[in-house]
Amino acid sequence: MSRALALVRHGQSTANAAGEFTGSRDVPLTPLGREQARAAGRRLLERGLYPDTAFCSTRTRTAESATMILDALGRSALPVEPAAALDERDYGALTGLTHAEAEARWGAEQVRVWRRAFADPPPGGESIRDTLARVAPYHLTRILPAAMRGVALVVAHGNSLRALVTAVEGLSPGEAERLEIPTGSLRLYRLTPDATIEGLAVLS
Ligand SMILES: O=C(O)[C@@H](CO)OP(=O)(O)O
User: Fold this and answer.
1) ipTM
2) CA of 75 to the centre of ligand 1 (A)
3) Of 49, 57, 69, 95, which has the most beta carbons under 10 Å away?
4) What is the pLDDT of residues 84-99, one digit of tens each?
5) In the chain, where are the structural domains located?
6) Which residue from 24, 86, 88, 162 has its CB within 8 A of the most atoms of ligand 1, so it is best to mutate?
7) Which CATH class is domain 4-203?
């Protein structure tokens, strides 16, 4: 029996391509983003890892990526569970601005802190710690039990996955801040019967 957890960041979105803070906005994939999602599906196919359960956020870019991954695996009929717990962190006042616009307004160092510091939320938004507080319970109640029964696929966002990886791997705040997860990348865990990680492959 496979006990596996496959985490995929959605493919490149139009906001990613424009260098904009995305956060809670609903934006579509670019053609490159669709190809990145298909490539993640092919990586699972090459390893014979066919999801038994699939999760995404409530945003189009993760649902669309999950559809493409499952299509590449010949598993289009598998239902995908959308969860607000997996939504991208709320970027508050930064939402919709380009990185350059935000830096011009608040300075590059402040923007860097808001983007990556574990516990400092941007004005009106969520920190990584806030995001972890909603992602971790969902992981424990829905995702981990599915990964203990078979192959669980999760398609989510740069920062909701940063929080999820923190929960799965028990990262320190500093490790969480340094973790970068490219669009379309796959993080693949194999689990033992007592739910510890026996193998990790990072493919991007
Ligand atoms: O804009 C966002 O919501 C995220 C990634 O999609 O940006 P960051 O690069 O700051 O993690």
Assistant:
1) 0.88
2) 29
3) 69
4) 999 999 999 999 999 9
5) 4-203
6) 88
7) alpha beta
